[in-house]
Amino acid sequence: MSWDKKNNFLLSLVVPAFDEEDSVNYFFKRTLPILEKYNYELIFVNDGSKDKTAEKIKAQARKNKRIKLISFSRNFGHQIALTAGYRYSHGDAVVTIDADLQDPPELIDVLVKKWQEGYRVVYAKRRTRQDKWFKKITAYLFYRFINLLSDVPIPTDIGDYRLLDRKVVNILNNLPEHARFLRGLTSWTGFKSTYVYFDRQERRYGQTHYPLSKMIAFAVEGLTSFSTKPLTYITYLGLLTSILGFLGIIYALYRRLFLSPQYYVTGWTALFIAVLFVGGVQMIMLGIMGEYLGRIYREVQNRPHFIIKEKVNLT
Ligand code: UDP
Ligand code: MG
What we know:
alpha/beta, Spore Coat Polysaccharide Biosynthesis Protein SpsA, Chain A, 2 domains, eight-stranded mixed beta sheet, elongated, binds uridine-5'-diphosphate, binds magnesium ion
């Protein structure tokens, strides 16, 4: 080990912020006293905020060179903001935390302690969460479902509040893919990890930036990044409907050839149902294939993950 994990290490705190002008000052007030104990850098990633988020951070950054800011040219999304934070961080340990104080900064000390014990990944796991029932239920289902399908285990009931060792951060920084479902990627690296429990608070200032549409997109991203099982399952489903279709054909032929003509028209219902059913199944299959195809397309385009408009206290 080239550095001393006990005393002389650099701690990076990465904070994605999208329209958080109501939160940032409270964030500084509550977080800075905790950070002062360490040799730290505090990196904000302003994800295309349209409000005064950047101004408020810059005001602090002028007084304190440890406070750094990256501003994107537009909104690139939470996971990409974290990706940028990792890329510009220099810490021996890097903690990611939300700007809205739903993740209690007091827990940073505990995360660091676990890291000093030798864990390279320390997740902050929600013991309880004070969110709306809808968010609770969908989050619960999402983690159960993704783990059913995923090829790597995705830790349940964790968010993006975690500590990563420099070694893990370097690996993430070298992953070229654009689909950045960081919870999955972190687990994929396979390093020794542990949990620290906390009670997730309700958002006090501002509002969530994860409406249902974004939550669904996030879930699909996670699923398709870590499993191709949906492709396998639709093959099975296709096989099953083919078998049913084949039986239907035999049945139809039987009626046509061996029964009297009065029975022909009665088959309309069966025909109608079969057409609708097979049509629907095919549409779903096409949709799932399209999801993967779209992802391949995005990777092949290979555009930069994000575009930076401005940097403060960073080179
Ligand atoms: N965030 C971001 N870009 C986005 C959406 C969110 O950088 O497009 C940030 C946001 O400012 C916050 C964190 O990601 O610091 C978590 O977002 P939010 O609190 O809206 O999500 P929730 O806690 O409701 O899941
Ligand atoms: Mg939040």
